[in-house]
């Protein structure tokens, strides 16, 4: 498997495990009222699952399997894919750590702004990377 896709897909699988742990904890807390602060982790669960797992898996498979860009550069400029990988994951991790902290103890607002900037950049650059590969598989390569 193409190395960049392996990074995306393995990281997505790790998020799947973590998201289910966090989601399980939130659900257990809803049932047993362990601690009223745990409910704050609900949006963390959503975003770990939908950004970390689903979006990342789709990006990885698309970068791997979509029609080639050209014979010389089958996947176009691969730096764009690495940019997406880095910014998506750093942005999501920032959110996962600092969104609850921001609510529990205050402060850290700038990390959420940075997280948003990174995740939005990740997806814009992903679309720029993949756009030219959405085409009829007409050429060999
Ligand atoms: C596949 C992608 C995404 C899905 C399916 C998704 C889903 C959700 C859901 C279900 C909520 C409601 C949470 C709640 O009410 O407890 C939410 C809240 C929110 N999401 Fe997303 N989200 C996605 C990506 C993003 C990204 C990339 C950003 C920012 C760059 C973002 C920013 C927010 C904000 C600001 C809120 C409201 C505040 C909060 O409850 O944390 N989301 N999202």
Short description:
With about 140 residues, the protein is mainly alpha-helical. It has helices at about 5-30, 40-65, 80-105, 110-130. The radius of gyration is 18 Å and the shape is elongated.
Question: What does this protein structure show overall?
Answer:
The protein has helices at residues 3-32, 42-65, 78-105, 109-130. The protein has one domain (3-133). The protein is elongated and about 60 Å long. With 141 residues, the chain is mainly alpha-helical. The chain is 74% helix and 0% strand. Helix 1 (3-32) runs antiparallel to helix 2 (42-65), helix 2 runs antiparallel to helix 3 (78-105) and helix 3 runs antiparallel to helix 4 (109-130). The protein has four helices and no strands. The structure holds protoporphyrin IX containing FE.
């Amino acid at each position: 498997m193409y190395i960049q896709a392996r990074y995306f897909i393995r990281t997505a699988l790790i998020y799947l495990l973590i998201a289910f742990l966090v989601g399980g904890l939130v659900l257990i807390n809803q049932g047993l009222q362990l601690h009223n602060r745990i409910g704050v982790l609900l949006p963390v669960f959503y975003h770990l699952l939908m950004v970390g797992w689903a979006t990342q898996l789709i990006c990885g498979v698309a970068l791997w399997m979509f029609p080639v860009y050209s014979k010389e550069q089958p996947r176009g400029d691969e730096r764009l894919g690495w940019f997406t990988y880095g910014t998506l994951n750093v942005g999501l991790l920032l959110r996962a750590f600092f969104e609850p902290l921001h609510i529990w103890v205050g402060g850290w607002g700038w990390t959420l702004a940075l997280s948003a900037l990174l995740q939005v950049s990740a997806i814009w650059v992903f679309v720029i990377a993949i756009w030219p590969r959405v085409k009829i598989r007409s050429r060999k390569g």
